[in-house]
Amino acid sequence: MNYWRAHLNQTLLNITSEYDALMYGGKAITQIGQKFQEPSPAASFISPAFSDMFFKSDICFRFNQSTCYAPNSTWYQATRNGLNSMMMRCLEELSLLIQDDNSVISYTNPRYQAWYYIGVTDLYDGIQTASEVFVTYSIQKFKTVQTVQLVLMIVCIILAALYIYLILRPYLALQKDEVLKVAGLVSHCPQEVDVNGHAKRIMRKVGNPKPESNKVQPTAADAAANGDDGKGDEDRSVADGSEGGGQSQQEEDEPIKGFGNLQTNAKM
């Protein structure tokens, strides 16, 4: 019996310390030697709905409302004054039960009955409801902080982009002026300076050569009839070749002539 009395006494001390830390802030004795050492915030002053359930509510907290105590019941007033009143009543009754003699500790003990009829259903269901309210409130606050952080991140990105634009704006203006100046200078250059057009003309001449004319070679009879022994054709072929070579040489000299003009303009 003494073992269970000591165990109940230690459990009662832990519950009292944790309840005080929950409602009024601070550290509970169960945090000693634990990794988490931050003090708990006072839940009584954070959420109005959570605070009202403990100090102002006069409703029945049972999940099954059909089993709530009737107004003429002995436990009606004890269960209709908020969760804090029920918690204090249960802790007080358990504290007095520890001090009772072993001979009077039984299921018919008034202190045990008070703890049972108040704490087992009404207080337990009320604590579960308060826990859900507290969790919902915490999630709403977390979402609010998340939304604020997202807005701040977007604002920071916009400010950074605006800062970069304002820093580069003078350089962009200088670049625009330089482009206009270069365009004006290029517009006064001769046609030979147009390297792209000159290269296109050369590639067009190389890629599309003029087709050679298919001449019919005269026969020996035709040559005898015409009184020509073939030397005339050779002379004409040589003459044509010379004329064609001269024309080809002239076409090849055109690019070189263009580049010569380009060099002349560059020297000037």
Topology:
Layout: H1 2-24, H2 48-55, H3 83-99, H4 110-187, H5 195-207, H6 220-225, H7 231-267
Helix pairs in contact: 1-3, 2-4, 3-4
Compute the number of structural domains. 2
Give the number of DSSP strands.
0
- Relative strand content: under 5%
Summarize the main sheet.
none
Which structural category do the helix and sheet elements fall into? mainly alpha
SSE run: HHHHHHH
State the assembly state of the protein chains.
Answer: single chain
Number of helical segments? Answer: 7
What percentage of residues falls in helices of 4 or more residues? Answer: 55-70%
Poorly predicted regions: 228-232, 234-268
Overview of the molecule:
There is one protein chain. This protein is mainly α. The protein has helices at residues 2-24, 48-55, 83-99, 110-187, 195-207, 220-225, 231-267. The chain is rod-shaped.
What's the gist of this structure?
This protein is mostly helical and 268 residues long. It contains seven helices and no strands. It folds into two domains: 141 residues, no CATH class; 69 residues.
